[in-house]
Specification:
Strand content: 5-15%
Distance between the termini: 33 Å
Radius of gyration: 21 Å
Number of strands: 6
Order of helices and strands: EHHEHHHHEHEHEEHHH
Shape: globular
Structural class: alpha/beta
Length: 315
């Protein structure tokens, strides 16, 4: 994108998520899913601008919160995050065990380990929860994310992509936050581990009355876990539907959403033709019109309004 040029990466994203519910946000890469997650945690670049509100159950508007509030009382405590690129979020000189124990201490109000000479780990000071409780909580988080205990003393560079993903999931589960944002949590996992990870996230949500926003391109994982599906295209949510309706009958109403399902190997295995437009050069009408066989002049000239769960002139 040329220097000094601004684009709307996400526009008019409106949804709600209650305790015990999972919303799966799906769509092609670059449609704005991860930008939305970063906005909810105040992790956008400094030059980014946000408008609107994103309120937690206690009324806190995270889009209006300052960095001190976000760092001390939101991230990890009220909102947990499974990042899209776990290797980039793990400290290379610390073991996974040290990551987990430090996170437990920090969320309990204690101090984490300080780097020693050359980046090595100094013995950590005791948090208020006690050493035994810290170890137990760290070990439990690893087990919940299916992270093998035999790898706890390894460093991030010694892990495969799948193991790094499970380590990041374990870190997100430590704080038992009321809201969990999972950004592509099944990336790099084989199908058995995908099912195990998804089932654990679902249990984390349903059994404890927590909310889960799962960002994914894996529709099979979304079908297994979601109560509601939101489809994003070119920075906008174009359809929201109950998962049973979306994956069953009558199915998606938006042509793009139908195309995503038709592209699955177990269905028609027909890819959506064409490519999404650049966010900085969106057409005047529907952003999907150039790829839609049902588009007419209205679609190409007038942007559809999101009404009754879908943004489509033809729905």
């Amino acid at each position: 994108m040329p220097a000094g040029r601004y684009v709307e990466a996400v526009t008019d994203a409106t949804f709600s998520l209650g305790p015990g519910e999972c919303l799966a946000l799906v769509g092609e890469s670059g449609c704005g899913k991860s930008v939305l997650a970063s906005a909810l945690l105040g992790l956008l670049p400094g030059h980014a601008e946000t408008a609107g509100s994103a309120r937690l159950a206690d009324g806190l508007d995270v889009l209006a919160a300052d960095e001190r509030t976000l760092a001390r009382s939101v991230r990890g405590r009220r909102v947990g995050l499974v990042p899209q690129s776990p290797a980039a979020h793990l400290t290379p000189v610390r073991t996974i065990r040290a990551h987990l124990e430090e996170t437990v201490r920090e969320l309990a109000g204690g101090a984490g380990p300080a780097p020693g000479p050359g980046g090595s780990e100094r013995p950590a000071r005791r948090g208020r929860s006690g050493r035994a409780a810290v170890l137990a909580a760290a070990r439990a988080a690893g087990e919940r994310a299916a992270f093998p205990a035999t790898h706890l003393d390894r460093h991030p560079h010694e892990l495969s992509g799948g193991l790094a993903q499970r380590a990041a999931t374990a870190l997100a589960l430590v704080g038992d936050a009321p809201l969990l944002l999972a950004d592509e949590p099944t990336t790099g996992l084989d199908r058995d581990l995908v099912r195990r990870t998804v089932d654990e996230l679902r249990a984390h949500t349903r059994e404890a009355g927590r909310a889960l926003l799962m960002i994914t391109h894996d529709l099979a994982a979304a079908e297994r876990i979601a109560d509601t599906v939101a489809v994003m295209y070119a920075g906008r949510i174009v359809e929201i539907a109950p998962a049973g309706t979306f994956f069953g009958r009558p199915g998606p109403r938006h042509p793009y959403a139908r195309g995503l399902l038709d592209a699955l190997p177990e269905r028609a295995f027909v890819p959506v033709p064409g490519a999404p437009p650049e966010l900085g050069a969106l057409p005047a009408g529907c952003a999907f019109a150039a790829r839609c066989a049902a588009a007419d002049q209205t679609c190409r000239s007038r942007r559809p309004v999101f009404t009754e769960g879908v943004a489509c002139h033809r729905a």
